[in-house]
Amino acid sequence: MVSKQYTPEYFPNWTQVLVCFKDMDALSHFNNILFNSYFKKVRIRLPLEISAWLEHIERKRYVMLRKSTNEYLTPILNSDTLFNYSSIDRVDASRINVLQVAYNSNTEQLSSTAETIGTWFDLQTELSDQISTSKVLLNYLLSSTPN
User: Fold this and answer.
1) Which residues, other chains included, contact 21 with Cβ-Cβ below 8 Å and sequence gap of 6+?
2) What's the pLDDT tens digit per position in 64-108?
3) What is the pTM of this model?
4) What is the DSSP letter of 21?
């Protein structure tokens, strides 16, 4: 899971996500289960920004979600805006790990973390696939030090 010391500077990709009233529970807190939905919304846009990943999509090679782990740290309220920071933590020929964190823009606190593991999958053969790791994809790796 993402260490709580990570700050936005460690992540090369970020997206602003507005909290919707419909996503509130009876206590006027953001329903934690919806973090998965918010993280997914941002995660599925990530390949569209990475040319090397788009090349695999054109060849019908996708990432199938294998595992997702979330940690809920602080509540989100209706008036809050989240910043979702994403990064590739690890990529190799058979899988890709994506780390995401959500920061509350009002409190500047880390609200939630997500780690997902995906397996490269060929839709034409319907089998797991292997890819070559490109330098472009490696540019989206989590920074070891802030930029």
Assistant:
1) 78
2) 888 999 998 888 887 788 888 888 888 777 788 888 888 888 888
3) 0.76
4) G
Bridge partner list, 110: 103
- Which of 143, 145, 135 is closest to 53 using CA atoms? 135
Rg of the chain in Å (alpha carbons): 16
Q: What is the mean pLDDT of the chain?
A: 77
Residue partners of 133: CB distance under 8 A and separation at least 6: 91, 92, 93
State yes or no: pLDDT of 142 exceeds 80.
Answer: no
Amino acid present at 33: I
Short-list 93, 97, 92, CA closest to 130: 93
Helices then strands (H, E): number in the chain? 3, 6
Q: Which amino acid type is present at position 66?
A: R
Q: Name the DSSP letter for residue 141.
A: B
